[in-house]
Amino acid sequence: MSAPQNDAVVIEEHPISEDADLGSIAMVTINRPDKLNALNAEVMSGIKAMVEWVELTPHVRVVIITGAQPNDPPEGKRAKPNAFVAGADITEFVGKKSDDIRVMFTDNAVEALWNLSKPTIAMVDGFALGGGCEVACSCDIRIASTRSRFGTPEVNLGLIPGYGATQRLARLVGYGKTMEMIFTGEAVKAEEAHRIGLANKICDADELLETTMAMARIIGSKSSNTLGVGKATVRAALDAGLTEGVAIEAEAFASLFDSKDKEIGVQAFINRATPEWQHE
Ligand code: COA
Q1: Residues near 27 by beta carbon (within 8 Å), at least 6 away in sequence
Q2: How far apart are CA 101 and CA 92, in angstroms?
Q3: With 90 as the cut, is the pLDDT of residue 220 above it?
Q4: 139 exposure class (CB count in 10 Å sphere: 0-12, 13-18, 19+)
């Protein structure tokens, strides 16, 4: 099955290593640089199609999601700024009422991305505002350039976040910082995003691709079965209480002892060999 095509969401596959058997990293680029990669209906349907394709494509082991770089400006015009995503497309809000928005925002592409069973990394270079911050928060890991800014400016539109920041941002950075961001609408610079745990890593813009790919390659070299169980189990910490979560972990940990990859990994350690995962 080939990657879905949509001008607003471009998908490229990169091998995890020279060894083609090791599978691939899907580099997913939200591609509306003239509108700072704002999330319109085409982007959202492209993300949903991408998630379906990744779930059905076993050789895709890791997803990196990013925003397209700015185009060269026309003669005499200033360049548009770098952006991961500058939010939901505000022009699509004009004249909309609650019934329209419930349809658009229920079962949306950001939830689909969050529910993807495979590891996801947001590679952020520039503005990650509103829905952009929320797309980043719906990934497992965020790696950002030092010129990035994260924020929830919806308050300036008379709104609150609608793609999960009240929940996922709060779980990442805590109650007080989330309230500050939602109340003031002011963006957080990359250094602060790193300090408060919103960005896992920050680096210069010219090192961002390699830094992100390096982490994706490390993750992609592991057993995808193990990664999936790990992701699902840590998610339990978000929904369950601690005691229930520890019980879920105990069951997940035990279940991996019936997997082929556990035996492969343990034998490889004992024999000082490189494990050849079967991803089962
Ligand atoms: N929705 C739709 N279009 C958007 C957008 C959004 N969320 N964010 C930026 N754009 C468009 C602008 O309208 C502009 O289009 P144009 O060149 O055709 O007029 C283009 O992207 C470039 O943005 P511009 O505002 O000119 O860049 P800037 O450098 O002056 O400012 C921002 C950058 C990010 C500060 C500013 O674009 C902004 O505040 N965007 C909205 C952020 C927001 O509120 N997000 C939450 C939405 S719920």
Answers
A1: 11, 12, 13, 14, 64, 66
A2: 10
A3: yes
A4: buried
Residue whose CA lies nearest to ligand 1 atom number 33: 81
User: What is the β-pairing status of strands 24-30 and 9-15?
Assistant: antiparallel
Q: Is 91 in the pocket of ligand 1 (CB under 6 A)?
A: yes
Whether 171 and 211 have beta carbons less than 8 Å apart is answered as no
Q: Are 164 and 137 in contact (CB under 8 A)?
A: yes
Could you report the per-residue pLDDT of 94-134, keeping only the tens digit for each? 999 999 898 888 889 999 999 999 999 999 999 999 999 99
- Full-model pTM: 0.96
* Ligand 1 and 154: CB distance under 6 A: yes
Residue 145 vs residues 33, 141, 232: alpha-carbon distances, Å? 17, 14, 28
- Token pair 């090192």 is found at 207
C-alpha 2/C-alpha 9 separation (Å) is: 14
Cα(271)–Cα(59) distance, rounded to whole angstroms? 27
> What stretches of the chain adopt beta strand conformation (E)?
9-15, 24-30, 60-67, 83-85, 120-124, 127-129, 141-145, 149-151, 188-189, 201-203
